[in-house]
Amino acid sequence: MTNQQIHFSNNSIDYHGGDNISITKGVVSRVEVTKYAHSNVKLMTTQTDAAINSGNSGGPSLMHSKVMLLDKFET
């Protein structure tokens, strides 16, 4: 599978502020294996245009009502 073949919708879920659920829609446009910064472990990473920030970082990203990945905010 090439990155040109990857283009699917996802929904990022969070509890920003702890009380209410927020859903941010986006499209995953890139999937690759990346070496984790603090070890030699390689992990699958994705790139999405969904707005990921400190409020929803760590929350699940869903596709067809199934957890696809966990969102991580990087600066």
TrEMBL record:
Alphabetical list of InterPro entries matching this protein: Peptidase_S1_PA (IPR009003), Peptidase_S1_PA_chymotrypsin (IPR043504)
Superkingdom per UniProt: Eukaryota
Gene3D superfamilies linked: Trypsin-like serine proteases
Biological source species: Brassica cretica (Mustard)
GO function terms (MF aspect): serine-type endopeptidase activity
Protein name according to UniProt: Peptidase S1 domain-containing protein
